[in-house]
Amino acid sequence: MRRREQIERLLLEGLKSHYEISVVVGVPVVTVLNVESELSPKPPILRAVCPDCGMLVVLPCCACEAQAEAKSPSMLEIVPPLKPIGLDLKPNHYKRYVAVLKRRGMSALVDQINGDSHPEAPLQ
């Protein structure tokens, strides 16, 4: 029996690993892997130009889907906590927390926090 036929038979049986087949037949493992890839070829990947962004992609375009998801109302409803939960921040750390909120464009949250401001760190 030819080595290739023996490799194919052992692969189809599915009882041995690639390494075990290579030892039994006396060939490198990569030969077993090559024979296996020829037995079950992968389907070709069909690429097309995305009608929205114009990129060559596998449809549906993941970039366009991600942008649409980021703009969806469900993503806009995610709101960070109004004040640090379970943290007793020192005044300088609290000021930094507020500065980060402002820098991220969450000044409305800073205004909401003003009512419950940290006693030692008035918000500015």
Structure description:
The protein has seven helices and two strands; from the N terminus they run αααββαααα. The chain is mainly alpha-helical and 124 residues long. It folds into three domains: 37 residues; 35 residues, no CATH class; 38 residues. It has a two-stranded antiparallel sheet with strand order 1-2. A hairpin with a 6-residue loop joins strand 1 and strand 2. The radius of gyration is 30 Å and the shape is elongated.
What attributes characterize this protein structure?
two-stranded antiparallel ribbon, elongated, 124 residues, mainly alpha, disordered C terminus
- Approximate shape: elongated
Strand content: under 5%
Tally of extended strands?
Answer: 2
N-to-C order of helices and strands: HHHEEHHHH
Span between N and C termini?
A: 85 Å
| Largest β sheet strand count, sense and barrel closure | 2 strands, antiparallel
Summarize it:
The protein has seven helices and two strands; from the N terminus they run H-H-H-E-E-H-H-H-H. It is mainly alpha-helical and 124 residues long. It folds into three domains: 3-39; 44-78, no CATH class; 79-116.
Describe the secondary-structure layout.
Elements: H1 3-13, H2 18-25, H3 29-39, E1 48-49, E2 56-57, H4 62-71, H5 73-76, H6 91-103, H7 107-113
Antiparallel strand pairs: 1-2
Helix pairs in contact: 1-2, 1-3, 2-3
